[in-house]
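re the bet — no i am not wrong, look at it urself. input seq straight from the record:
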Amino acid sequence: MPPVSPLLVDGQRLSARYNELLFLDHGYHFFAPDPGASTLTSFTMQRPGDVPLVRRIPDIEIRPRLLYHRYFMLSENIVGFPDEFQDAVYPAYARHFGGQCNATTVAINRVLHEPSGIIRIQAGGQLEDAETFSEEPVGIYQLDATTEPREASH
């Protein structure tokens, strides 16, 4: 995966079959050297007669760990679905999480979390500092037990 040197590309070609046979062709490049921002998804859910419920995926409290990882990958790749499915992705998320919480309306935001650099951490910064997060609204979806979620008029 770029960026790599031509020497590494040639070495990979020579060793590819051995790496596959021994299961050494891992995707650690996903995490290093510069992984970039993480993509999270936040939900604000309106429930009848109750205060709004705010959730974010992935959430480290999610158990079992495999479910946390699944939500992590779904959130990270949410914009990676083919264009013809994009209009169905967010309503499906709204239906899933809204259904779990008995919500009538689900507002979805895409959250980007920039990793903190070493200089920031050495200066006293924390991994979860608010300024490392930015949110972008995706849509507000009305949930009705008899129909598919529909985007609410703004």
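see?? The chain has a mean pLDDT of 84. told u. also The helical segments are 6-21, 65-76, 83-101, 118-122. so pay up
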